[in-house]
């Protein structure tokens, strides 16, 4: 068990991050025609609209909430709030976002599995990744009572310390030995999602972030048609 613990929390994070980054780059370079999220919006549009909106609102909040909560050093916010306040904020805000995301994902999963037409046009990886995300959300919601029992923020500080050590290449699996099992399984499955990311429809997340470049993109230069050129002039636009 000690060997498995060290592998999952010292080595496995780097395997998942390496595959996540290099796999995404390789797929974009070699298989751009598969770089998309297949649409089924012509079928059961009402359920899709509710499910997709709730899921995306919840998952975006959870993603950035986890990133900020785990990767922000304690001294950045200790002058504003102590660890216990941050812990309660994470429980209430994260719990609300988690419930929204869970409802939305359940609608999407129900739609994809129980509608024969949608199921027949779905890839196995589409259903598989939705199931994994659903299980991950359930595990995240299970951690809420455990987090509430550690209302002093001690568990959050341990998790944040581990995550910050991972990104600074100073892994320390020993910090997680005493953590409750839902946290550990939630972490391992979360890392596994990063591992599977390049091989699933989740790659369209990169495109979503890529659209932010349009905000700072310079204006497109379009040549005016009022150039006084003849129709056969080679300079004619």
From TrEMBL:
<dbReference type="GO" id="GO:0020037">
    <property type="term" value="F:heme binding"/>
</dbReference>
<dbReference type="GO" id="GO:0019645">
    <property type="term" value="P:anaerobic electron transport chain"/>
</dbReference>
<dbReference type="GO" id="GO:0009055">
    <property type="term" value="F:electron transfer activity"/>
</dbReference>
<keyword id="KW-0479">Metal-binding</keyword>
<dbReference type="GO" id="GO:0009325">
    <property type="term" value="C:nitrate reductase complex"/>
</dbReference>
<feature type="binding site" description="axial binding residue">
    <location>
        <position position="66"/>
    </location>
    <ligand>
        <name>heme b 2</name>
    </ligand>
</feature>
<comment type="subunit">
    <text>Dimer of heterotrimers each composed of an alpha, a beta and a gamma chain. Alpha and beta are catalytic chains; gamma chains are involved in binding the enzyme complex to the cytoplasmic membrane.</text>
</comment>
<feature type="transmembrane region" description="Helical">
    <location>
        <begin position="89"/>
        <end position="109"/>
    </location>
</feature>
<feature type="binding site" description="axial binding residue">
    <location>
        <position position="186"/>
    </location>
    <ligand>
        <name>heme b 1</name>
    </ligand>
</feature>
<protein>
    <recommendedName>
        <fullName>nitrate reductase (quinone)</fullName>
        <ecNumber>1.7.5.1</ecNumber>
    </recommendedName>
</protein>
<dbReference type="GO" id="GO:0160182">
    <property type="term" value="F:nitrate reductase (quinone) activity"/>
</dbReference>
<feature type="domain" description="NarG-like">
    <location>
        <begin position="6"/>
        <end position="225"/>
    </location>
</feature>
<keyword id="KW-0560">Oxidoreductase</keyword>
<keyword id="KW-0812">Transmembrane</keyword>
<dbReference type="Pfam" id="PF02665">
    <property type="entry name" value="Nitrate_red_gam"/>
</dbReference>
<dbReference type="InterPro" id="IPR051936">
    <property type="entry name" value="Heme-iron_electron_transfer"/>
</dbReference>
<feature type="binding site" description="axial binding residue">
    <location>
        <position position="56"/>
    </location>
    <ligand>
        <name>heme b 1</name>
    </ligand>
</feature>
<feature type="transmembrane region" description="Helical">
    <location>
        <begin position="54"/>
        <end position="77"/>
    </location>
</feature>
<feature type="transmembrane region" description="Helical">
    <location>
        <begin position="6"/>
        <end position="26"/>
    </location>
</feature>
<dbReference type="GO" id="GO:0046872">
    <property type="term" value="F:metal ion binding"/>
</dbReference>
<dbReference type="InterPro" id="IPR003816">
    <property type="entry name" value="Nitrate_red_gam"/>
</dbReference>
<dbReference type="GO" id="GO:0005886">
    <property type="term" value="C:plasma membrane"/>
</dbReference>
<feature type="binding site" description="axial binding residue">
    <location>
        <position position="204"/>
    </location>
    <ligand>
        <name>heme b 1</name>
    </ligand>
</feature>
<keyword id="KW-1133">Transmembrane helix</keyword>
<keyword id="KW-0349">Heme</keyword>
<keyword id="KW-1003">Cell membrane</keyword>
<keyword id="KW-0408">Iron</keyword>
<dbReference type="InterPro" id="IPR023234">
    <property type="entry name" value="NarG-like_domain"/>
</dbReference>
<feature type="transmembrane region" description="Helical">
    <location>
        <begin position="129"/>
        <end position="148"/>
    </location>
</feature>
<dbReference type="InterPro" id="IPR036197">
    <property type="entry name" value="NarG-like_sf"/>
</dbReference>
<keyword id="KW-0249">Electron transport</keyword>
<keyword id="KW-0534">Nitrate assimilation</keyword>
<dbReference type="GO" id="GO:0042128">
    <property type="term" value="P:nitrate assimilation"/>
</dbReference>
<feature type="transmembrane region" description="Helical">
    <location>
        <begin position="187"/>
        <end position="216"/>
    </location>
</feature>
<keyword id="KW-0813">Transport</keyword>
<keyword id="KW-0472">Membrane</keyword>
